[in-house]
């Protein structure tokens, strides 16, 4: 897939799935801007990798639960990119908690980071696409948890279901401008967000046995499907949810 000359944004691009997607975009010729929340060294490493591919790389530190940070980020995008071709809404948090222990502060932090930020980032970036007459691609990172739920993820699964609903509406709204919007639903992927949870060997073995491919996913397993959906090769997939789980869902019967 050829992304030469394309400008792409990947939120939460310093680690995990976002990192794999950002690097894959750079590998294929895109200029890439990532957002990140905490890890300065990981963000710097990612940008250095991007630049090593002879493309432009940028990083922006942001608390995506704060609307003022989002407004400042949109201004930063305008200062670096003349236009935006691709937006991948990947950033998210999942503090595993018992349902009865989730307080309003925790719920709001997860909701604002996982949904509200992407609502307003997409609003700002899609305006740029429309103003520049860019037939862009927008991708939301949902989750298999939006379909099957999770015992310690009631707040998280709520946000991932919401992202799919948002995506469906935007596929209609932005489709009129030639902008295509879809979502990915990764299964169990080994990332920082679940590393502690999957450090339990019994639980990890159980999860692996439920997957027909008999292994947990890697961030790179998500990068390929993500790149296809935001590439010029995708000419007619709009408003769709793509499950990437190694066959786990169909094996849950």
Automatic annotation (TrEMBL):
The entry's keywords: NADP, Oxidoreductase, Rhamnose metabolism
Metal-binding listed as a keyword: no
Any one biological process term the GO annotation gives: fatty acid biosynthetic process
GO molecular function, one term: oxidoreductase activity, acting on the CH-OH group of donors, NAD or NADP as acceptor
Superkingdom classification of source: Archaea
Keyword field contains NADP: yes
Family: Belongs to the short-chain dehydrogenases/reductases (SDR) family.
InterPro entries: L-rhamnose_1-dehydrogenase (IPR053690), NAD(P)-bd_dom_sf (IPR036291), Sc_DH/Rdtase_CS (IPR020904), SDR_fam (IPR002347)
Protein name: Short-chain dehydrogenase
PROSITE patterns linked: ADH_SHORT
Family matches, as SUPFAM superfamilies: NAD(P)-binding Rossmann-fold domains (SSF51735)
């Amino acid at each position: 897939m050829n992304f030469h000359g394309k400008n792409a944004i990947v939120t939460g691009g310093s680690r995990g799935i976002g990192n794999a997607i950002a690097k894959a975009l750079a590998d294929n010729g895109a200029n890439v801007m990532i957002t990140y929340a905490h890890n300065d060294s990981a963000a710097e490493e990612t940008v250095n990798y991007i630049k090593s591919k002879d493309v432009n790389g940028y990083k922006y530190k942001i608390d995506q639960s704060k609307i003022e940070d989002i407004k400042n980020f949109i201004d930063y995008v305008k200062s670096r990119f003349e236009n935006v071709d691709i937006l991948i809404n990947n950033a998210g948090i999942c503090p595993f908690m018992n349902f009865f222990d989730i307080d309003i502060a925790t719920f709001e932090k997860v909701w604002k980071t996982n949904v509200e930020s992407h609502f307003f980032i997409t609003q700002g970036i899609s305006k740029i696409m429309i103003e520049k007459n860019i037939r862009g691609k927008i991708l939301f990172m949902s989750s298999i948890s939006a379909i099957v739920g999770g015992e310690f993820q009631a707040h998280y699964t709520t946000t991932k279901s919401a992202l799919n609903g948002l995506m469906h509406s935007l596929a209609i709204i932005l489709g009129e401008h030639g902008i295509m919007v879809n979502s990915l639903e990764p299964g169990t992927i080994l990332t920082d967000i679940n590393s502690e949870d999957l450090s339990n060997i019994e639980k990890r073995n159980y999860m692996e046995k439920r997957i027909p491919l008999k292994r947990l996913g890697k961030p790179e397993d998500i990068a390929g499907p993500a790149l296809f959906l935001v590439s010029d090769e995708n000419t007619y997939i709009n408003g769709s949810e793509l499950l990437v789980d190694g066959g786990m869902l169909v094996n849950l019967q």
